[in-house]
Amino acid sequence: MMKRWALKIIPLILIGVIVFAPLTAALSMTEGSVNFLKKFGDSSGQVRTLSLTIVALAEASGKVNEDLTPKIREFTRELLSYQNPDGGWGYFPESVSNVLDTSYALIALSKAEKFFEGTDDLFTVDDARKRGINFLLNSKTGNAWGYIPDSTPMFYPTVLALWALGENGYNSSSPVVSSAISSLGDLPRYIDDYTALGLRLIAFKAVGEPVDRSEVSELIGILNGEELSPTQRALLTYALTLYSEPTFEVVATIARLDQIKHTGANMVFWADTPKYPISVTDTVTPTAYALLAVSKLVPPIREVRVNPNEMPCDQLISYQNPDGGWGIYRGSPSNEKATYYALLAVEACYPAPDVVEKALNWTEKRFKEDERVVLNESRLTVGYYYALMTLLHFNRLNESEREHAIEVIKSIRMDTGKWGIKDLGPQPAETAMALSALLALGVNKSDPDVVAAKNWLLSISSTGWGLYYQSGIYPFMLDVNVLDTLTVLKALEPIATKPEVESHLNWLISQRVDGGWPYAKEYTDINGTELMGRPRVDLTVEATLLLLHYGFDYSQQTLDFVKKARDSGLIANDTLETAFAVIYLSSFNKMPMVDLSDVRNALETSTFNVLCSEDRIGDAKEILNYLRETFGYRFDLGPLSLIEEGNAIVLAGFSDVNVSRYNRYIALDVAGNTVELNNSTYPRQNTVLLIPGRTAKGVILFVLYDEDSSEIAKLVFKIGYVKYMQGPAVVIHYEDRNGDGKIELNEVTAETVG
Description:
By secondary structure, this protein is of the alpha+beta class. It has 28 helices and 20 strands.
């Protein structure tokens, strides 16, 4: 007995330890209470608290990131070891079997059995459950149950027996159940009225016995107005979740639970204050019921949390140099080509205006220096070409600057339609870059230089391009490679037909190796050994997109290649390969995943701006106060222009903001009196949308609504719903069911949209 009492006081001793231990991170009630029950769910040595722990963890399974199966199995095996030979369970291990603890154990086994599927213990669990049911059925006295077999029937053991039988396949039409239900109201209680109400509602739900709605209303009234112990509040809140849709009224009851929780050491728990003659603080029972209640509101975590086509945007942005450009490799000097493709990739990620502006400022400076080099050396450099293409893409050149660029390019040609390198003569790559630049600058396709460049490029080779050398009347091509061939084919793409370039396309296809394209399929090293080239993501993506234009489809194979390169770490620190991975994945992908839970977690720890237009400033001020009351003084007001400057809560009309810019998984369309969100249609009136978004500097919560729905929008924050939101988006809708024109919590629903 001393050992059992020692076990019973463990939760009491640990309360002080937990409360004063620091939280290491923002923690949801679900995650925190799971952590607590995993650690202390079996600490009292009582069968009923161990059983409630198993029930609560089973309900939370799939709704937290951790796989709870191992812990559920561990606790269940412990519970099985406490079963007596007669099939029942006692208050403690080895104590006399009784109806109450056997009922708790049977409820736990009914929830735990599915976690043993495919294991050798499945039969053991099922056999123990069946023996427990036999004990329970044989312990009935008349129409009901006493605490032990053949004792005077009482309310508490009877209502627990009903709950247990309901969880194990019995229903209200079963004679053993129906007779107990008919007797339940006349039985002595010896437990408080609130606990009796909660247990009866739970038991009736388990056996399928109808409950009058007035009792649910009574339950809501108690939760809203009565002084309740943590166990009573948690139990009644759980009962309410069994009978109500996820209205804001239910969320409000969860919020009240939140207000009385204890936190510490990455755990959340509730504790009853002991009353004479009891001297032990119960933490497991209220925490288990609270977790059951909260878990009913939390949607399951989707099995695939990681997007298989996730783009390495954050990695790419981290490669940016302090001067604004990107190097070919992380940390190497900034390079015009790397910067050009990095910027194209950033565009495919999420809004990052500071990142882009910094890079464009660097490019503008480099462009002037590159022009001087071009004019001094009379050749078109790679740096000048990519700086020019960057500024054109981002519309940073005015008309006179464009005309000047055309003059510069034409001034350094070696002959009509030919550009090259001094001492080597005209070159395919330089000519292709000049051709591409002139077309991008708006030069007409019939321009003599454009026509001559096309004709010359097609005349000097039929199987790819490389370094061109002409000695007398015998020209020849050295080092034919994929990079130069792609450069030429891309330049010719707007002006050449498929028959004109088909032989080059076939050569390009022949260079494919191991699912991608290398610089050269085969090459000889300095020792004369012939080797196969390593396929690169940048060359593979460019080849795939070019070939697709001409009807050769390698899209899926390249997608597999790019994902493999991304996941293997092969492209780490390589700007070009990382950028092209982003560019290619963006055509299959939307953008880096963002969920309302990401916003919720940020609300717990980070600073936010509440942003709105002038006409919603009143709403914003009220919401700001609610946020500060809930999360602390980390929130400020600001204009919509700050939307990309950090974490933000944006209050706006349905059409005021392009949410798809910040979350490309969201398709929002507003037409007349309806809003369509991801192919689901909702009435516009009395509707509020909660949509997550993301920028390079933080997360965004879009709260979209018409002005006449502002009270509904404010209610989201007033009752603390934002602490429990989860999923891709949520649609909140108010329906005036009683016709009084007043917004009541039970008239507001929240639907998670996938």
